[in-house]
Amino acid sequence: MADVVIIGAGPAGIFAALELSRKAPGIKVVIVEQGKDITERSRTGRDMLVGWGGAGAYSDGKLTISTDVGGQLSTLKGDEELQELLEEVDAIYAGYESEGGVYSVDTDDAARISAQAKLAGLVYVPTKVRHIGTENCYTILKNMLDELKGKVEMIFNTRALEILVEDGKVTGVRLEDGSVIDTSFVIAAPGRVGSSWMSGQAKLLGLETKPNPVDLGVRVELPAVVMEELTSKAYETKLIYYSKTFDDRVRTFCMNPYGEVVRETVGDILTVNGHSWARKRTENTNFAILVSADFTEPFDDPIGYGESVARLANMLGKGVIVQRLGDLHAGRRTNPARLLKCVTQPTLKQATPGDLSYCLPYRILSDIMEMLSAMDNIAPGVDSDHTLLYGIEVKFYSNRISLDQDLMAGVEGLFVIGDGAGITRGLIQASCSGLIAARSVIRKAAS
Predict the structure, then answer these.
(1) In Å, what is the CA distance from 201 to each residue of 4, 120, 153, 163, 206?
(2) Residue 428, preceding peptide bond in cis (omega within 30° of 0)
């Protein structure tokens, strides 16, 4: 038996456990995690996304301290309350590791960048960012794990199969070995990797949901000097563009000055992402350009759509594809000989030179090329023949589950948090959702 079962040990689940252990040490908490302890994880295969720390364990640890990006919690809590939570979560991370830098955009710089962006048909979103660094993420997560040892029970390498409910109330969690943990409170924090599982549980429990869009695009890599004028002033340069051809919303995401491009494994699919370190640099900067693919009736499976596009790229390239922008413009594939001539040397060596136009839908590819052309007006060299594009980058989001302001779903005692709830899209808002749910549990347990 347990008072609270937390499903998933990513940022959302960890922060819920930290809050419960600190504010209500008498409450018995069990964490169920399908992956490994952080000390046993590696930067390969399934371990990249599953285990203690979730997908954030091998990210570059960006905490975007802004209500404008990273999720939709402001629709439930309001901007002022959410901003206070963001600052609180940032302070908690900083308390474990103070090495990461905080980057704020000077007011004058923000005004200049915004003006330049407008002239190029772009919208600039200034943000305050704490960059922890990939290597420091491990340290922080290990310290959090050490703090919780002996205070909460942790079950690793075990999947939660089913949330059990009777008469509209949570009664337990069934694990993959058939055993059941009896409990009155479940905090489900399955992360993006668990989005399909969470969608299945929502259907079984009759929870009200609506599809979230899937974000599809490429990871862009270019010489760091091209973006230096922007990244020196705005470390995370967030730009939004509305395409001329389709009027789609296109955005930059996860900018990594002097960083590296990496592969990620999502189930049986290879996708691409980017990281940057606190204590070492490459010669390149990378960032994603993503297009939100939103669907209406009769189609209601954006996750399946994103998976099919990524699988097509995997089939053509036996994994991740890399292409020079000049070759894409010329209507030809990049081959090993052309890649060797590229001024931008790829940081991801396992990518296969190929042709992204064979796997990216025309609409999305057109949006991306328009965005690169617009960005070239404020950072000359972005739309260069020597810019590299890696594909596919795809961000899956669980169907957004209808939640109250305490993040409780339509079942008494069931809280759904983090990216798996379809309500957050990054480290810091996911962590905030853990605090909200834990505090709700404490109040209800005391009543």
Answers:
(1) 18, 45, 24, 7, 8
(2) no
Here the tokens at position 168 are: 């509209």
Structure tokens, 4: 């609270």
143-162 as b/e, with b when 16 or more CB fall inside 10 Å? ebbebbeeebebbbeeebeb
Handedness of CA 10, 16, 22, 27 (dihedral sign): negative
How many residues belong to the chain?
447
Asked if residue 20 lies in contact with residue 441, where contact means CB atoms within 8 angstroms, the answer is: yes
DSSP string, 167-201: TTEEEEEEETTS-EEE-SEEEE--TTTTHHHHHHH
Distances (CA, A) of 170 to 150, 358, 418: 26, 47, 19
Phi/psi of residue 419, nearest 5 degrees:
-65, -25
Judge whether 436 and 403 are in contact, CB under 8 Å. no
- 325: tokens are 């922008």
- Are 36 and 160 in contact by the 8 Å Cβ rule? The answer is no
Q: What are the pLDDT digits (tens) for 337-382?
A: 999 999 999 999 999 999 999 999 999 999 999 999 999 999 999 9
Rg of the chain over Cα atoms, rounded to whole angstroms, equals 22
Tokens of 191: 């992360």
Query: What tokens were used for 24?
Result: 């209500």
* Torsion sign across C-alpha atoms 222, 67, 367, 376: negative
Whole-angstrom Cα distance, residue 36 to residue 57? 12
DSSP letter at 59?
S
pLDDT tens figures, 124-179: 998 888 888 888 888 999 999 999 999 999 999 999 999 999 999 999 999 999 99
Bridge partners (DSSP) listed for residue 241 = 122, 250
Q: Which tokens hold the place of 347?
A: 């940081």
Torsion sign (Cα): 199, 202, 204, 206: negative
